[in-house]
Batch of 4 targets.
Target 1
Amino acid sequence: MSKNVPEGFYKGPQADEFAEVSEPFALFSEWFEDAKAHEPNDANAMSLATVDDDGLPNVRMVLCKDAGTQGFVFYTNLGSAKGQELASQAKAALCFHWKSLRRQVRVRGPVEAVGDDEADAYYATRSRGSQLGAWASKQSQPLESRFALEKRVAAVTARYPLGKVPRPEFWSGFRLNPLEIEFWHDRPFRLHERVQFTRSTTESDWKRCRLFP
């Protein structure tokens, strides 16, 4: 490895060639698999940025539960801050940061609700505790004490002591179908690689552009 590359610097597949890739989803899939192999925790963690009715941004970490040519999927309580903001302003931005790989992917685009069948199928894969928690939590609303939350969990557990826990109507998912995806790869001396893919609509062809670091 070059003496200019810091010790521990990750140089994985397509570390040099990714800037020439013509289609972003295949590249994301490759980087995502690298992240799953190298990140110590939650390779699918991503920041999600939304805006409220006053245009004030909100950002938080969520987990990406599906990623492909149709977009990036995450789930939440529809009454939460992000759920309400997406209902009002159906657009968002995402950021994946894989520190161990020194890579970042930024995504922006319109957001739509997933179908009931898709939400039901994912909900069924969650642990029973997480299913019960979805019922118990009034996400983003004031909570008087931890004990109040535990009482709600106990009440839901008593309601569904055995068998299937149905998905709450107020809990579902969203899909961000990107208009922009940017790939960032660390380079020595802050001369990073940045490649941006853009398209005018979700049905348009992608255009690629290299960006100054």
Target 2
Amino acid sequence: MKALVLGATGLIGFHITQALLRQGVRPRAMVRDAQRGRQLHGEAVDLVVGDITAPSSLQGVFSDVDVVFHAAGIPEQWVPDEGVFERINHQGCRNVAHAAAAAGVRRLVFLSTIDVFEPQADQRIHERCARRTQARSAYERSKQAADLHLQAQYPPSGPLEVIYLHPCAIYGPGPTRSRGTNDFVKEIKARQIPILVPGGMPLVLAADVGEAAVRAAQQAQAGERFVLTGPWISLRDLATQVHQQLNYGRVPPVLPLPVARAVSTLTQAWSRLTGTAPLVPRGQLEALQWGAKPEATRAREHLGMTFTSLDAGLRQLLDSLR
């Protein structure tokens, strides 16, 4: 396999790269910061510099490549300029697919999200739960637009075979510059969270996503989709598990939902004036109330995935933080 990894200095891209290396594949990794890329990967990968938002920088990057892993993107639920989501997650994906097709790449493994789905009446989510309404946040809308573009422009019968992976909230050891579950765990560990937000989310270990991506590139059919998820857990129960592993005492209390929404509204308005992040981004709060329960049955049956338990995954993350 001649592989190119986009987003190799991010949490998912890093673990895709590691999964390829475990199989004896020396991947090409496109990064914006060569120094950071070399610090993370040493001499184990072939680094090229490029930016998915700058099509001219992609020339030559995709040549002599069989499979592209597109894990570059911005997973935040809030940024001062929401146009960033459109430029990176949607238009960037279009640029990547166009460059890959032009270079004759055979397969594109696209790291999407469960947010492009709508849950069934019982809140279950699987690969056939296509969203028929507009997504809630700017982040989710950008991922939805990218997904729809790939479906329309690169059908399974075409020369560029697209495979879609849909991870839920990702955590675990590895590099990340975007706020996410790892930051929540770090702040709980540092006793920096005096009160919790209501709601919860499904979690999946980043290393499992990396392994699933490589297996999908090798085993999946064009156009196939795979939900990647572990258990759904409330923030309070997640904090409780962290406290138990660290032998901490009392878990912080949970803010009532009406109060959390009021705080989110007020600090969101303040953020528009100051450019500082709100205490509780509206998109993040609503995502935590979603309550969807994704299922990874297809990934288990078709890719042979076994997902790491939350207890073991948290232990790995906390060990890395020590």
Target 3
Amino acid sequence: MINRERIRQDKLLRLRANLAQKPIIAGLKGSADSEKSAQAGIKVCFYLTGHIFELRELVQQSKEQGQMVFAHVDLISGVAKDNYGMEMLASEIGVDGVLTTKGHLITAAKRAGLLGIHRLFMLDSEALKTGLRMLESSQPDAVEVLPALILPSIRERLPGRLPPIIAGGLVETANELRALLRPPVLAVSTSRIELWNYERE
């Protein structure tokens, strides 16, 4: 019998090691971006939009390049938004994990042996409170806070015990990356190709 929790823990260790080495996550919008991300030394990719057939091709290409791939299941066509969809992503497509705003999909992904990253949009103080309650329920492996540029303002309001934080959205400059890449932020996700080459100084 497959020990899915052991598989998940191995993936989580690999994710943390990859992001410690390269704290930039490439937001891919197609398979053409995959090769560019590998050339920039990216270790972790988010597939943000498209369809299941392109995802299959992209996962194969990314695995050959030694990258981890997370699928944004809310926006990818052809993926069932249920337990069966998460099982299919794990066994047939081979993604390492999923991104979603839906707590029940985090739970389903974890049962299927995938990592789950909960996306939270911090639009106002009420969204922050609601988001923190959702994290208590879904228990994700990481949380992506959007827009990223809000994090310096709310850093002090975040509880001490949170899943690893990824900042995403509206990051356009290396200076913004530097400002964000401080505890508790583990990594920054961006689809801006010119930022994928960023290295810590």
Target 4
Amino acid sequence: MTRITFIILTLLISVSQFIFAQNERKFVREGNRYYEKALADTTKLDTTMYSQAETAYRKALDKRPDDLKWDFNLGDALYKQMKFEESAAKFGQIADKSTDKVEKSRALHNMGNSLLMQNKLDESIEAYKDALRKNPDDLETKYNLLYAMNMKKKQQEQQKNKDKENKDQNKDQNQNKDDQNKDKQDQNKDQNKDKQNQQQQPQQSKISKENAERLLQALQNNEKDIQEKVKKVQAEKAQSRKTEKDW
């Protein structure tokens, strides 16, 4: 009786595992359908379909978290939705967990793509290089590596030109500032000169006034002398008339 019960329990466990596995694959197949349907439409990026694929893959992984292939599909769905930060993290985790060099190289390649789309050029270049160390014959990774390196070179040249423009602009600004300071100094110099002239003008007026006073005094003195001479002449004439009358 005990033996029969054991056999029945074994059969029940086997059936449960089979049903459980079927449910997992059901979600994976569902995710694949959504993914392939979105991929088939080349006229637009159907993020809604990719989002449904992501949901299905997550349901499958809830039941089997260690399945790297399903995890890889989830990373692809995240990438297609332009969730590049999440997809980079997901492919990085897959690369760390994978023991197969080719699978590890594919994960690193996709991680490099996710980093490249975030304009993290240095990190993407390192991911591509690491992928090529695992699989040196991967031409697609070689192409993406060269593309990322060219992008970095262009950015460096643009930054160099920008720094040069900023340097020239600062030089022009400093030159303009120096010219303005020079103009200001010249203006201050002219103002000081005008101020000195203004200070000198009252002094010159004072000297002219003194000269005028001296000239006026001299004229008054001359007039006084003339008046005295006139009076003296008149007195002499009066005395002469008086003498003649007395005679």
